[in-house]
Specification:
- The chain has 4 domains: 5-67, no CATH class; 72-153, no CATH class; 195-422, Endonuclease Chain A (Endonuclease, Chain A), CATH 3.30.870; 464-666, Endonuclease Chain A (Endonuclease, Chain A, 2-Layer Sandwich), CATH 3.30.870.10.
- It has 28 helices and 20 strands.
- It has an 18-stranded mixed β-sheet, with helices on both faces.
- The longest helix is centred in the N-terminal third of the chain and has 19 residues, at 49-67.
């Protein structure tokens, strides 16, 4: 992480809470410390005083929030009764305070405010509109603030809260051949010289159906490991399916990262009350509510730990079959939500590779960063809570879905899972290598411990390419290492073609702002760049129907490399600095010309002018830097854009402003 990262992180986490001035003229004067204390990455912006003033505005706003925390006796916080377990760790005049007006539910925001006045506009921006009012009651605020303050007072701990909670190690099913799926695919392994069987799942809805049907087929064990597990339509249906598996006596283990948790996602944790279910949270926040402001404050005080996330996506049934790729558990990832579709891929895997994937799950499950849910909540969910959740889930399954499809009926049909198990949808048998980061990737990177870094085998495989590299990545921030890799390939005459998100299709402005800096250098060395459009002209290869494509909310989320059309990588790793250095990742390197050709065919379909922008350099007047032109096709007409296509001028301006921040190491 660069020297400027602490300041950049503070600015980054404040973006959601700081009101943006309508005019640049309203920015305050630039503080001396800001122009001298953040290093060369921002110093290069000194030519543009307005840009510096923008950053100063965020810095001053961040300071406003942080200023109240070292001296809580000056805040409204002293009126809050904190839980007794925290009383000894905070000033006496704060811990002893009682609210004299319990009929008035105070805003937690007011409790964090200094006694000096603050504008209503700032206060409104910091009060999350999506937060239920009950979340801001006096008792709730007291508990949440107490937890947050205790977390801040502990300093930057290397281990998360609950790390000392007693827990039992567990492992994958020792004899998968004793299950129906194990016996069925073991025969295929023998017939194919010990190789594993694979099938790419490119259609989003099929990815959901296959997960449901695999869970329904589980006999002994079920392991789920995800970066995001939403409490939306598909999330609830998968939760209900896992609960039914537990009712059948299947041991269920669920491991979820805590970095992107939202209100409602905790619906899955009620399953912990079931004797056959265990749920663990990877690298959790101490604050267990959903107010973004509180999470942001905790992040700023403990960024060195909380910035480190588990990005893996994996489902394993009976240690016999697995599903791995880039899809999280949420409606957009299955491309059934008209408001948002994240195009991605899974690969179904059976045979020896499934057991290796199970071993990686065990390693993460038993890691010090994986914390049991009851260690964070203080108690295990009750049986009554579980019964209530069961009723809600069953009722939800009968409700109509957003895209009008009857998924209960489609799940019951058994497809595509029955087609795979029967051989009607044949597997491709090939040798494969599981590539995976160690759970404590940060310590492996800094040399504090021995372990695995998956970027190394992926980089070796990429450097070995002789003729062509095809890459699909939603976020393209190669950094110095990635740029050198591309340069080396191009110097050897390797054709390099990359498909990523356009500004209009991107849902992550920060990532897009980092990518902007690399477009001209990549084009200059001969990399062929394509950016997907949000409104597709042809749905072939997109993973979704033409009907849902018409909404114009398409976005890439797949992570795929095709190496000389002989091998492929598929997994959770983006080609960005976060995947390389901050997040743990997992994937497969598969030696299969047939699968490589399948992915290459879809790549060719998606880079057609009706679906993507093809980028090119435009040489400007002598001495001026080259600029980018976006070539595409509207209907039957070829069109060139010299201004970056965007959904709005505000979207374009926001990304331009974010691009001034030195955040590449975080993206």
């Amino acid at each position: 992480m660069s020297a400027t990262a602490p300041t950049a992180l503070r600015l980054k986490v404040m973006l959601d809470f700081v009101p943006f001035p309508r005019s640049l003229a309203t920015f305050p004067a630039l503080p001396d410390r800001f122009s001298t204390g953040v290093g060369p990455s921002i110093a290069r912006c000194n030519k543009d005083q307005k840009a510096i003033q923008i950053l100063a505005h965020f810095e001053q706003s961040a300071s406003m929030w942080l200023a109240v925390l070292p001296s809580p006796s000056a805040c409204w916080l002293r009126r809050v009764s904190l839980p007794s377990r925290f009383s000894s760790r905070i000033p006496m005049n704060v811990a002893a305070g009682q609210s004299s007006d319990r009929n008035r539910p105070p805003d937690c925001l007011e409790q964090l405010m200094p006694t000096s006045p603050i504008s209503a506009r700032t206060a409104g921006a910091a009060y999350p509109a999506s937060t239920p009012r009950s979340d801001w009651s006096l008792a709730a605020c007291s508990s949440r603030l107490g937890t947050l303050i205790a977390a801040l007072l502990t300093g930057c701990s290397s281990l998360p809260p609950g790390s000392d909670f007693p827990r039992k190690a567990s492992s994958a099913l020792a004899h998968p051949e004793e299950t129906r799926l194990g016996r069925q695919f073991e025969q295929g392994v023998r017939e194919h010289d010990g190789n594993s069987g694979f099938r790419i799942i490119p259609v989003g809805a099929d990815g959901f159906l296959l997960r449901m049907q695999m869970i329904n087929a589980a006999e002994r064990t079920l392991d789920l490991q995800y970066f995001i597990f939403r409490g939306d339509e598909t999330g609830k249906m998968l939760t209900a399916s896992a609960l039914r598996a537990a009712d059948r006596g299947v041991r269920v283990r669920v491991l979820i990262d805590d970095g992107e948790t939202e209100a409602g996602d905790e619906q899955v944790t009620a399953l912990q009350a079931h004797p056959s279910v265990e749920i663990r949270i990877y690298n959790p926040f101490a604050y267990r509510g959903h107010a973004k402001l509180f999470r942001a404050v905790e992040f700023m005080f403990n960024a060195s730990r909380l910035d480190y996330r588990m990005h893996n996506k994996l489902l394993v049934v009976d240690n016999a079959v697995a599903l791995i790729g880039g899809r999280n558990i949420a409606d957009p990832y299955f491309q059934i939500d008209p408001e948002s579709q994240f195009a991605d891929d899974d690969v179904f895997a059976a045979g020896p590779v499934a057991r290796t994937l199970s071993a990686t799950f065990d390693e993460y499950w038993n890691a010090a960063l994986s914390i049991p849910v009851e260690a964070l909540s203080g108690e295990k969910p009750s049986r009554a809570e579980l019964d209530e959740r069961r009723e809600e889930l069953e009722e939800h399954n009968q409700q109509p879905k957003a895209d009008g499809a009857d998924y209960v009926k489609r799940i019951a049909s058994g497809e595509p899972f029955n087609g795979i198990t029967s051989g009607r949808l044949p597997l491709v048998w090939a040798h494969a290598q599981v590539v995976c980061d160690s759970p404590d990737k940060k310590n492996v990177e800094n040399g504090a411990m021995v372990g695995r870094l998956m970027q190394r085998p992926v980089a070796r495989a990429t450097r070995a390419v002789q003729s062509e590299l095809l890459m699909v990545t939603p976020y393209l921030i190669p950094g110095n290492e990635g740029m050198q890799l591309f340069k080396d390939l191009r110097q050897r005459g390797v054709r390099v073609r990359v498909l990523t998100n356009s500004l209009e299709s991107s849902t992550v402005p920060l990532a897009q702002s980092g990518y902007m800096h690399y477009r001209v250098p990549l084009l200059d060395i001969g990399v062929e760049l394509y950016e997907i459009r949000s409104l597709l002209g042809n749905a072939r290869g997109s993973g979704q129907t033409e009907a849902i494509s018409r909404y114009g909310n398409y976005s890439l989320h797949a992570k795929l490399f095709v190496l000389d059309r002989q091998r492929l990588f598929i997994g959770s790793m983006n080609f960005d600095q976060r995947s390389m250095h901050l997040n743990t990742e997992i994937g497969l390197l598969i030696d299969s010309p047939e699968l490589a050709r399948q992915i290459a065919g879809r790549f060719e379909a998606m880079v057609q002018p009706v679906n993507s922008y093809m980028l090119a350099l435009r040489r400007n007047a002598e001495g001026a830097l080259p600029s980018v032109v976006w070539h595409t096709q509207e209907g039957t007409q070829a069109v060139d854009y010299v201004t970056e296509p965007a959904r709005s001028n505000w979207q374009r301006a926001k990304v331009d402003l974010l691009s001034l921040l030195p955040l590449d190491d975080e993206l």
